[in-house]
Amino acid sequence: MQALGPIVLLAVAGFLVGGVAATWKTARLAAVVLGVLAALAAAGGIAWLL
Fold it and tell me: Is Transmembrane helix included in the keywords of this UniProt record (predicted)?
């Protein structure tokens, strides 16, 4: 059950990257915020795996 955490964080990062791609042309500030959150989620998931 403990190995589920990093997988969930990486999945959330993937959804957030999709949000960045979807909102880039209409709301750049929101896309940048989503990109930062995606980077944090991915870094957290990778750090948790290590």
Answer: yes
For the chain, give every domain's residue range: 4-49
Q: Among residues 18, 11, 19, which one has the least CA distance to residue 41? A: 11
Nearest Cα neighbor of 12 from 50, 46, 26 is 46
Can you give the pLDDT at residue 1?
58
What's the CA gap between 6 and 32, in Å, rounded? 23
Encoded tokens for 9: 């964080």
Segments in the chain forming alpha helices (H) = 4-23, 28-49
